[in-house]
From TrEMBL:
Domain named SnoaL-like: residues: 42-166
Keywords in alphabetical order: Signal
Coiled coil: none
InterPro entries per UniProt: NTF2-like_dom_sf, SnoaL-like
Keyword Signal: yes
Annotated signal peptide: 1-20
Transmembrane segments: none
Protein name: Nuclear transport factor 2 family protein
Record-linked Gene3D superfamilies: 3.10.450.50
Length: 218
């Protein structure tokens, strides 16, 4: 149980103790208990969304497509804009294909999401902002990319479970460098578990426009 949920439970217990010591009117008790239950539910929803996004980053960097499938809405929309790429994808299957193609056996990826700002819009809708920092090595092309962005997400609750409904960002900054030689990689998870590909489709996610990997400045 998270510290947020624990704090809400503690507040509920303390309030219940206060009721026992000096019982208020019945209608006030019912109203206050209802308000506390609503606050606890909201805190639990926010924590579930945080867990969803943490799983998202883990799924991306490990190319865990079953995990990503489990947290995405079937009609998820995606729009990512970087210095040399723009992904505009519609639907879970298209996004999973893009992830499988680009987080492949010839890359090393690290994506971290920080400073979540999550707001509940309704009992079944929420929006969130996350501060991304990532490192990405394209070992085939000897390219290293690093930078930041602000994810803007929307989430929906379906059958009691929160799902990613839309996600987008435009790079806050991005640095792409050509490597003279590859780093001394001693462990590479994606080399074993990533998809084997004939080409990289980082330009638009699926090589629909024939664009492959962006070229770094010399």
């Amino acid at each position: 149980m998270s510290r947020f949920t624990l704090a809400a439970v503690a507040a509920l217990i303390l309030s219940s103790s206060a009721f026992a010591a000096a019982p208020p009117k019945a209608d006030n008790v019912a109203g206050q208990l209802k308000a506390l239950q609503a606050e606890l539910r909201a805190l639990k929803d926010i924590e579930e969304i945080r867990m969803l996004k943490h799983a998202y980053f883990r799924g991306i960097d490990s190319a865990d497509l079953p995990l990503l499938r489990s947290i995405m809405h079937p009609e998820v929309t995606v729009h990512f804009i970087g210095g040399g790429y723009e992904w505009k994808l519609t639907g879970r299957e298209q996004y999973l294909e893009a992830i499988g193609n680009n987080f492949n056996s010839e890359v090393i990826a690290q994506h971290n999401g920080h400073h979540p700002e999550i707001r509940l819009i309704s009992p079944t809708e929420a929006e969130g902002m996350w501060y991304l920092h990532d490192n990405f090595y394209n070992l085939r092309e000897k390219l290293y990319t690093t930078g930041t962005a602000f994810y803007r997400d929307r989430y929906v609750k379906v059958d009691g479970k929160w799902l990613l409904r839309s996600t987008e960002y435009k790079r806050h900054y991005e640095i792409v460098e050509k490597l003279d030689k590859l780093p001394n990689v001693t462990v590479d998870y994606l080399a074993e578990h990533g998809r084997k590909v004939d080409r990289h489709c980082h330009g638009d996610g699926l090589c629909r426009d024939g664009q492959e990997t962006p070229v770094a400045s010399q």
